[in-house]
Amino acid sequence: MKGMQWGSASTHTAAEDPVALLANLGVVWEALALPEHPEALALLARPTLDALEQEALLRALDPVFHPLQAERGYRERDLVVLYPEHPDLETLDRRFGGIHRHDDEEVRYIVDGEGVFGFVLDDGRQLELTVEAGDYLHIPAGVEHWFRLNGLRRIKAVRYFSARGGWVPVYSDTPQQQFPHA
Ligand SMILES: CSCCC(=O)/C(O)=C/O
Ligand SMILES: [Fe+2]
Ligand code: NI
């Protein structure tokens, strides 16, 4: 994790551990080392990947996927590749930038770049985590969260699914607090 920040209306103490607070919601954040796989590292260094390159990268990352498949029952995986020139960046920003939840778990393994996941805690406070390559995030169904790109405007993340389509955003009317955007 690259860092975290609290929402403007979320009083907190320095002693509070955001990962522990998120664990109360069932959110799992873990550091999961990227495989030392020369082909994967070469593909990860590319700004964009075509369909064949994405599949090659997913196969190279299967040593991470297979244990998750056995342990947590994920059946499929695909790749999100966002970069400054991506044609749908604004649409995706709007789609995921608002507070939402999903009817299925949201499981993301960040393999390149950075992104910001925000959460509404069970006491209503809000915080953001800046995630980076090697971060594994599991958001249970129903947890209110959001996602935005940071100034880097670049991320590659593997999405793991038990069932497809259950993670369409269901928007919440919880007002989103202000976060000082670095
Ligand atoms: C980096 S994954 C893209 C964002 C996404 O899938 C989601 O649901 C965010 O909440
Ligand atoms: Fe989401
Ligand atoms: Ni503080």
From TrEMBL:
It catalyses: 1,2-dihydroxy-5-(methylsulfanyl)pent-1-en-3-one + O2 = 4-methylsulfanyl-2-oxobutanoate + formate + 2 H(+); 1,2-dihydroxy-5-(methylsulfanyl)pent-1-en-3-one + O2 = 3-(methylsulfanyl)propanoate + CO + formate + 2 H(+). Its cofactor is Ni(2+); Fe(2+). It comes from the Bacteria. Ni(2+) binds at H100, H102, E106, H145. The keyword rRNA-binding does not apply. One of its GO terms (molecular function) is acireductone dioxygenase (Ni2+-requiring) activity. Binds 1 nickel ion per monomer. Its EC number is 1.13.11.54, 1.13.11.53. One of its GO terms (biological process) is L-methionine salvage from methylthioadenosine. This is Acireductone dioxygenase. InterPro entries: ARD, ARD_bac, RmlC-like_jellyroll, RmlC_Cupin_sf. It comes from Acidithiobacillus caldus (strain SM-1). The lineage of its organism: Bacteria, Pseudomonadati, Pseudomonadota, Acidithiobacillia, Acidithiobacillales. The keyword NADP does not apply. The record marks R108 as: Important to generate the dianion. Catalyzes 2 different reactions between oxygene and the acireductone 1,2-dihydroxy-3-keto-5-methylthiopentene (DHK-MTPene) depending upon the metal bound in the active site. Fe-containing acireductone dioxygenase (Fe-ARD) produces formate and 2-keto-4-methylthiobutyrate (KMTB), the alpha-ketoacid precursor of methionine in the methionine recycle pathway. Ni-containing acireductone dioxygenase (Ni-ARD) produces methylthiopropionate, carbon monoxide and formate, and does not lie on the methionine recycle pathway. Fe(2+) binds at H100, H102, E106, H145. Pfam families: ARD. Gene3D superfamilies: Jelly Rolls. Monomer.
